[in-house]
Amino acid sequence: MTEPLFDSTQFRRVCGQFPTGVTAVTAVTADGRTAALTVNSFTSVSLDPAKVLFCLADSSSSYPLLTEAERIAIHILSRDQEDVARRFATSGLTGAERLAGVGWTAGPGGVPLLPDTPAILAGPPGEIITSGDHAIILVAVDHVHLKPSDTPALSFYQGRFTTPVVAAAE
Question: What pTM value is reported for the model?
Answer without folding.
Answer: 0.89
